[in-house]
Amino acid sequence: QVQLVESGGGLVQPGGSLRLSCEASGSIFSINAMGWYRQAPGKERELVAVITSGRLTYADSVKGRFTISRDNAKNTVYLHMNSLKPEDTAVYYCNADLTSYGGSWTSRQDYWGQGTQVTVSS
To answer: Would you say 18 and 73 are in contact if contact means Cβ atoms under 8 Å apart?
Structure first.
C-alpha cells in the first residue's frame, strides 16, 4: 500500500505565504515525479507544479511566486507559495507517479493525496 499525506494548508491574507508538504509512504520502489494540482470550486483540477529528476514545471499563473522542491530521502515534496492571491484559493492535491512493489512484482501508477484547503482572503 502507498499513501500520500499532505499538510500545511490554511487561511492566509493576500500577499502572504504558505508551505505545503506531501510525504509518500509504503512499499515504494522508485518515484518518477511528484507534483501539486489544485481544484477551485466549479473548476477543473489543474496542474500547479511538478518535479521530475531535476526538471521543474510550473503553471503560468504561479511562476515567480511558487517554488516546488523535493527531499528524496524523505519521499517528500514541498510547495512554497508566496505572494498569494485570492484566485489561488483551492483544494491542493499532491500527486506522485511512482513504482510500488510487493513480493516479486512492481507496478507503476499515479497516486493522489486527500487534498488540503488553501484559502486566500482578507
So the answer is: no
Q: Taking the mean position of all CA atoms in its chain, how far away is CA 106?
A: 24
For 56-64, the CB contacts below 8 A with 24+ separation are 61/87, 62/88
Write the CA distances from 30 to 19, 25, 71, 82, 117, integer angstroms. 25, 11, 13, 30, 28
Q: What is the pLDDT of residues 52-68, one digit of tens each?
A: 987 999 999 999 999 99
Which residue is associated with the grid cell 530521502? Answer: 73
Cell representation of residue 30 = 522508485
Return d(Cα 113, Cα 96) in angstroms, integer. 9
